[in-house]
């Protein structure tokens, strides 16, 4: 990315310093920033929430119920409007997992700083390997190839794993990819890569298109060693992402945001990429 000034400005704004940042910028710099955002490409990385998508943990199906519906020609002042009741587990659809999701005493959604939600986006593309091996786990060879092409993965970045698994959404059978013996086959991260990203590159968060950090062979039977490890590094993750095939491997930025329930241990997230226009 040629102009790091713009993302620094975005991070300052997201962290609550927008007015101060704007006040201290020249008029030309403000116009340049505004033009950069206007010219950028935006890619939605979140699935739409509706009944019938994979439910997430818990026995009760997620439901959306109308509490109040519009009466044609009338507005809220006349007792008409649109209000819905939503019932869902925190890990529904595209969602955020903070450390406390798996780690007792870990950070909650309230504890994640705003500056951790606007980040340089790194995309590790393994979709071609997954196409021939659905159990594939990203390897250090994949990471080294990325760094040979684009340079060292930057600290305080968001690393997303592209598998194209989101193209199976919302068919849970295709997502779980059961074989004739009832075993699930879906790709995931690996311990060596997560350890490297968290401790050697000091990234801020990871994301993936699959339902789990771990491969399906583990997650489908309730075993989550990789997710436990990563959340144990005091970092967060986004699951069930989509459209990573529309984002470059380097040069984009991600905005990941969500509601803030008190002591929240997970919540549906709105996540999108900003791809600055290149000259």
Question: How would you describe what is shown here?
Answer:
The chain has 279 residues and is of the alpha/beta class. It folds into 3 domains: 1-39; 42-56 and 91-275, Putative cyclase (Glucose Oxidase, domain 1); 59-88, no CATH class. It has 8 helices and 10 strands. The protein has helices at residues 4-23, 27-39, 127-132, 140-150, 172-176, 191-200, 216-219, 225-231; strands spanning 41-44, 63-68, 83-87, 95-97, 118-125, 158-162, 205-208, 236-239, 252-258, 267-275. The chain has a 7-stranded mixed β-barrel with strand order 4-8-7-6-5-9-10. Strand 9 and strand 10 (267-275) form a beta hairpin. The N and C termini lie close together (11 Å). 34% of the residues are buried. Residues 1-22 have low confidence and may be disordered.
CA-based gyration radius:
20 Å
Q: Based on the structure given, which CATH architecture of the largest domain is correct?
A: 3-Layer(bba) Sandwich
Helical fraction: 25-40%
Q: What's the CATH class label of the largest domain?
A: Alpha Beta
* End-to-end gap: 11 Å
Strand content: 15-25%
Biggest sheet statistics? 7 strands, mixed, barrel
Low-confidence stretches: 1-22
> Any idea how many domains?
3
CATH topology of the largest domain: Glucose Oxidase, domain 1
What is the H/E order? HHEEEEEHHEHHEHHEEE
- The shape is globular
**Mean residue pLDDT:** 90
- Any idea what the CATH superfamily of the largest domain is called? Putative cyclase
The class by helix and strand makeup works out as alpha/beta
Strand order of the largest sheet: 4-8-7-6-5-9-10
